[in-house]
Model the fold of this input.
Amino acid sequence: MPITPTYPGVYIEEVPSGVHTIAGVSTSVAAFVDFFKRGPMNTAVQIFSFGDFEREFGGLDLRSEASYAIQQFYLNGGSEAWVVRVASGTPAKADVVLNPAGTSLKVFAVSEGVWGNSLRVGIDQAAPANQFNLTISEVTSNGAVLRQETFRNLSMATVERTVNESSGLVTVQASGSALPVPTGTVSDPLALPFSLAAGTRKVKITYAGADADVKDDVDLGSAAIGSLDEAAARLQAAIRSANPAKRGWAEATVRVIQPPGATTGRLQITAGPSAPDAVISFANAASDAATAGLLKLTGGTVTTNPAQYKVGAGTAGNDGTPPDANALLGSAAATPPTGMYALDKVSLFNILCLPRIAKVTGTDAFVAGQVDTVISTATTYCENRRAFLILDTPSDQNTLPKIKTWMSARPRHKNTAVYFPRVQVADPLDDFRPRSLGASGTMAGLYARTDVARGVWKAPAGTEAVLRGVTKLDYVMTDLENGSLNPLAINCLRNFPVYGNVSWGARTLDGADQQASEWKYIPVRRLALFLEESLYRGTQWVVFEPNDEPLWSQIRLNIGAFMHNLFRQGAFQGASPREAYLVKCDRETTTQNDINLGIVNIVVGFAPLKPAEFVILKIQQLAGQIQT
Done:
C-alpha cells in the first residue's frame, strides 16, 4: 500500500508489476456418459487411468459401449477423463437389514447394481464392551475376496459417521442402541478350566452351505483347556483338519468375543470367506456324549447365523437397463443435474463421447429415432462448454452408401467430428474375439497423445497417428473410396502397409467442401477453443478494475505474452509475431460509451496453421538442359 512519509529517511514500497500470467488450459480432458455395472449414478467422477475406471465403475461390460471406449482412450494416450453413469429402468442398491431386538442396522451397497449382491457383512464383538467390529467383503462367484474393509470398535452412535465417511463399498443407517448380533455360530459362556478326559474329546461338525459336509468324531486332543484362547485355537485346528481339501473348512475361523451385557467370553465360529453364507454347527460325536455341550456349542442360547450376512438379502441390487435418450441426456433442471448435465459440476472437459448412441442393433439397441435429438442437444452443450464432440457411427452403417446416407440426415456443427469405419478390438470378455466399436474413445485418446507430443494445433491424423489396440477396421477402403468421403467431412480410418491402422482425416462436420467454412479443420477449431477457454479463465482479474489505459496496457502485456509463447511453440502461421497474432485493447476497441457501460473490449486475432491435407508432387522430365 502507499507509504506516507513521516520521518526523514529511506522508505521501501513494493509496486505491483501488473503481470498476471495466463496459463493454457488442458486440451484433452475427455468425458464419457453411458451405462456401467457400478459407480455413482448421474455423478461425474474423475479418473486418471483404466485402473481407476475398473475400481470405480467395474471395468469392461458387454452391455456398455463406453467401457470399451474408455479402455481405448487410455490405450491411445489419454490421461484424464470424467465418467458419468446413467441407466434406464429401475436401478437399485442392494441392502440387508440386521435386526436384533430394539435396534436396526441397515447396510446398503454404495451404488446401484447387481454387483452389490456380492457384498458380505461380518460382525463380531471381539471389542470393548458395547462395541463391535464390522467387516465388509466383496467376493467373487467362487468365493475369492476382491476387496475387504474392516471397521473396529464401533458403537451404534458412531457406526454411521465412521463407515459412511470411509467406506468405498457400503453406507449404513443405524437406529436404536442394541448391538447387531454377531455372525457365525456363537457359543454360550464357557466355564474354565476343564480337561478333555476319555469320552469327552470328540465332536460332530456340520457344515451347511458351500462345501457342505458332516464330520463325526473330530478329535480335539486330550490336553486340558485352561483359557478361552486355548479353546478357540483347539477348535479352529479341529475344524480345519477335519476336511482340509475343502476351502471353506480350511479357512474356518474361531475367535473369542464378549457380546454386549455378557460378563464372560464366548466363541465365535465362522466359515471361510469362500463360503460367506455357510453355517458351522455342532453336536456330540457318535462316540462322545459330552464335548459339544462342554464347549457350550449346543443348547442354551447359542446363536447360529451365516458366516457373513449377504447384502441384497433385503433389496436385491439392480443394474437397470442401458439408457435411452432421456436417461443419457438427463436434466439440467434436476437437483443435482442428471445424465449429460452432471458434467455441469465439472470445471473443464474438452472432448465429449457418447458411444451409446451407436448401438442400434441387438436387444439393448439404442432407439434410432432418438439419435438426432441426442446429437443436437450434445452439440449445443459442447458449444456452450467450449468442448468438442466426437460422434460414433452406428453399428449397422458399415458400407460407404450407408454412411453417406446416414450422414446426409445428421446435424452438422463446427464442434463435431465423425470417423468411419468403426474399429475392432480384442474383447477379453469374449475369449478375445474381435468386437466392433465406434471410434470416439480411440480418437479421444489419439487427440490427447497428439496434443502432448505436438500441440493442439497439430491435426490428429497422419502416419504417426496409429490407432493403438485396434486389431482391424470394419471396412478397408481404397484411395478412391476415401476420396468420396473426405469432401463430405467424414474422416476416414485407413490401414496401410507398415504403418498399420491410422487416422486419415482431420475435418470437422462443418468442413464439407461445399460449406467453405473457416472452421473446416479439427486442429483449427480446437486451437480456437483452447484460446477462448484459456483467455476466459486468464482474464478474470480484469473484472472491476479501473477501465482506462493502465488497465488496457496490462491486458495487452499479459495476453500478448501468452500468445507470444504459443507463437514460439509453433502454434501459428507467420515468420514474426506481427504476422502470427494480434492483441488490441485501446481507445479504438473501447469507446467512451463502452466505458460508461462498464465494458472493456479486447480483440485477439491469430493466424492458424492448417494441415497439408493434399500433397501434390509435380514431376517434369528434363531433356538436355545445361546447369550453369
